Amino acid sequence: MFRANVRFRSTTGIDEFSISKIFKLQVDGEETLPKDLQLGEAKTITFTYHQPLLGSNPQKLLGSVVFNASDIVYIDMMEEID
Asked: I want to staple 21 with a disulfide (CB 3.0 to 4.6 A). Which of 9, 16, 50, 69 is the partner?
């Protein structure tokens, strides 16, 4: 799994979004390894992640976030060690 810090252009300037427990990275719908990520010709970047649901019956929920690649200024990805 990976963690990502994404800096992107927004209406208010440059914002940062952090996400952890990423288990799938897609560029234009094609699964990609973080080391092979290329933003140059990409249209969309999708991160799919686990989000733990705590309580008496802990579960892992799945979530996804999609960015327009043209809005991304910088992505810093690192491997997470549990």
From this structure: 50
Furthest-apart CA atoms within the chain: distance in Å: 46
**pTM exceeds 0.85, yes or no:** no
- C-alpha separations of 19 from 2, 25, 80 in Å: 9, 12, 11
Kindly give the pairing relationship between strand 44-53 and strand 30-31.
Answer: unpaired
Render the burial of 46-61: b for 16+ CB within 10 Å, e for the rest: bbbbeeeeeeeeeeee
Contacts of 48 (CB under 8 A, 6+ apart): 22, 23, 24, 25, 26, 62, 63, 64
Q: Calculate the alpha carbon distances from 20 to 12, 28, 59 in Å.
A: 24, 21, 16
